[in-house]
Amino acid sequence: MNEFELIRRYFDRPAKNAVLGVGDDAAIVRPTPGHDLHVSVDMLVEGRHFFADVDPAALGHKTLAVNLSDMAAMGAAPRWVVLAVALPHSDEAWVARFADGFFALADRFDVGVIGGDTTRGPLTLSVTVFGEAPSGRALRRNAAQEGDDVWVSGTLGLGAMALREKLAGDLKLPADALAAGLARLERPEPRVALGQGLLGLAHAAVDVSDGWFADFGHILERSNKGAELWFDALPTHPWLAERRARYPELIAAGGDDYELAFTAPAANRAAIEALGLQLGVAVSRVGRVRSPEAGVSLIDSAGRPVALQRAGYDHFA
Amino acid sequence: MNEFELIRRYFDRPAKNAVLGVGDDAAIVRPTPGHDLHVSVDMLVEGRHFFADVDPAALGHKTLAVNLSDMAAMGAAPRWVVLAVALPHSDEAWVARFADGFFALADRFDVGVIGGDTTRGPLTLSVTVFGEAPSGRALRRNAAQEGDDVWVSGTLGLGAMALREKLAGDLKLPADALAAGLARLERPEPRVALGQGLLGLAHAAVDVSDGWFADFGHILERSNKGAELWFDALPTHPWLAERRARYPELIAAGGDDYELAFTAPAANRAAIEALGLQLGVAVSRVGRVRSPEAGVSLIDSAGRPVALQRAGYDHFA
C-alpha cells in the first residue's frame, strides 16, 4: 500500500466541522464569527517523547492529547487538527492502530481531522491543533495579578514516577501506582472542559507538560510577578505523597502531567471549587502570586525552602 | 543555548497579523469576517526531501514555499504559519540561517510566523500554513468541467533535471540550465498572486509538487473527468525542450515544480493570459478536459501517445 492509499484508508474520513477535509491542496473550515482562532503545534520524536515499542493506539491518543491540552490552557474549544507523520516504513497495522487512538480522542472532543501529510523518515509526529474562544477572552500566560491564588488541576508526578521506574530502575512502584503512572504517560486526559470553564474565572493559565515548576514559571515570567508556592499542597498519587520529601522533582518538575496551572483572584475561589466538582476534576490551591521583588519561593508546610535538582524538561539537555 | 533560548532568539519575533504570537500555549489570530480558513501541512525529512548539506537558508525558504504553493493552489491569501523542527543538535548557526530564509519569504508574502516547536531528533521540518479566501470561492480539485482548458504556470522539469544530474550523473547540464534547475530546487517561487487572481476565472487548481501528470490527475480523479493533454505544449527550460522526447518524465512527472495546474472555461482564455502578463508569470494552455469515458491521454503534437515510465513521486516507493 503506497503513501496515498495509506492516507486515504486511515485518515481520509469525512471531516467534522469542515467545509472541505483531506484530499485537496488545503482543507477549508469556516471560523465562528466573534471568535479568535488559537493555534498550537507540537512535534514528537521516537526515543525522545515516546519509546519505539509504544502501543500505536496510545501514541495516537497522546499525540492529540498534548495538543488539546494546549487549547485547554487557553480556555479555547478545540475544533480542528492536522497531522504530519514520518514513518520508517509503510506499516499498515501500525497506522491503523495509531489512527484508532487518534480519532477516538478527536471524536470524543468533537475535533475535525482536516489534513495530513505522510512521508518516509524516522518516526516523527507533528500535530497542529486550532481552537476557538470568544474574541479577546483567552487565558494568557501574561495575565497573573498580584494576590491571585495559584491553582493546579488533577495530580502531578504520576507520569514521571512511572517513567523513572521504567528508565532508572531505582524506584519500585506498587501495581496501582505503576498503573496510574503508565495511564498518565500513555493516555493523558486533556483538561478541555476545565479550561473553557475557567474563562472569566481565572486570569492566567498554562499547560503543565515539561514540569509544573518550570511551566508555572512561564506565567510568572510573562506576567512579571513573583509567587510563594506550597510544595506540600501539590496534589499527587498517594504513594508518591508519602515520599514527597524524597522525590520533590518527580512531583514539582517531572513533566508529562498535562494538567492546568492557573491563577485566579481569591474572590473566585468558591466558583473554581464548584467548577472542579461539577467537572469531576480536582482543583488544588498551591500558592499565591506576589510582587516580582518578592521573588519565587517553593516552601514546605513548615515554611522551609524546597530545593529542586532540576526545574523542568529541556529538549536539548 | 538550550531549546527555549534557541526558539526565542530566532523565532520569537513580533508576529504579523496576530493578536498573540509565539510564547504562550497557543498563538491567537483573528480571522477575517466573511472568509474561509484554508489549512495545509507538509513534512520534510532530511535525505528524502532535501540533502544533509543543503544551505539552511535555502531550506528555510523552501520549507515555507512549498506550503505557500498549497495556498496558491486554493486561491487563498496565506496569512499565518507555524513551524515544528526536530534538530539533531542545538546548532545555533544552522538555526539562524534557516530562520533567515524562512522569515525572508514570510515577510515578502506578509505571512505571520505565529508558533513553533523545537525538539531534538533526526532533522525533520513540519509546516502548517493558514490562508484566507472569501467564503465558498476557493479553487478546488473537484471542480473541473468538461470542455475546460487545461493550463499550467511557469515551467516544468527544471528541478527534476538538476536533481537528475546531481543524483544519477547521466545528465550533463550546461551552466545556465543547471543554475536554473538548482534555483527551482532550492528556492521555488510559490504562485501566490496567480492563485488569488484565478478566483472567478479558473474552475479547479492543484499545486504541482510530485510531478505534473500525477498532480493534474488528482483534479481529473476528484472531478471525475478525462482529458487530452498535449505533451509538446508543456513549458520547460530551453535545454530540456530540445530533448523533450528523450526525457518526457523529467518534464511531465519530475516533481519539485511548485507551479499551478488549473482548468478554466475557454471563455476566460484572454483574461487568464492578461493575468499572466500582468503578474509576469507565463501561463500555458496544455490540454482540454473531456468526459470520463474518453479517458486521459498524453499525446505529442503529431497526436501520438507519449509514454511515461513513472507518473509521479510516491514517498513510499
UniProtKB/TrEMBL annotation, chains A, B:
Binding site for Mg(2+) 3: 25, 70, 207
List of residues binding ATP: 116-117, 141, 209
Every PurM-like N-terminal domain range: 23-132
Family: Belongs to the thiamine-monophosphate kinase family.
SUPFAM superfamilies attached to this UniProt entry: PurM C-terminal domain-like, PurM N-terminal domain-like
Catalysed transformations (reactions): thiamine phosphate + ATP = thiamine diphosphate + ADP
Any GO BP: thiamine diphosphate biosynthetic process
Cited InterPro entries: PurM-like_C_dom (IPR010918), PurM-like_C_sf (IPR036676), PurM-like_N (IPR016188), PurM-like_N_sf (IPR036921), ThiL-like (IPR006283)
UniProt keyword Kinase present: yes
CDD domains: ThiL
Residues that bind Mg(2+) 4: 25, 40, 70
Molecular functions per Gene Ontology: ATP binding; magnesium ion binding; thiamine-phosphate kinase activity
Keywords of the record: ATP-binding, Kinase, Magnesium, Metal-binding, Nucleotide-binding, Thiamine biosynthesis, Transferase
Annotated residues for binding of Mg(2+) 1: 42, 117
Residue ranges constituting the PurM-like C-terminal domain according to the UniProt record: 145-290
The EC number(s) this enzyme carries: 2.7.4.16
Function statement: Catalyzes the ATP-dependent phosphorylation of thiamine-monophosphate (TMP) to form thiamine-pyrophosphate (TPP), the active form of vitamin B1.
Name under which the protein is recorded: Thiamine-monophosphate kinase
Miscellaneous field: Reaction mechanism of ThiL seems to utilize a direct, inline transfer of the gamma-phosphate of ATP to TMP rather than a phosphorylated enzyme intermediate.
Pathway(s) annotated for this protein in UniProt: Cofactor biosynthesis; thiamine diphosphate biosynthesis; thiamine diphosphate from thiamine phosphate: step 1/1
Top EC group: transferase
Binding site for Mg(2+) 5: 210
Source organism per UniProt: Crenobacter luteus
Record has Magnesium as a keyword: yes
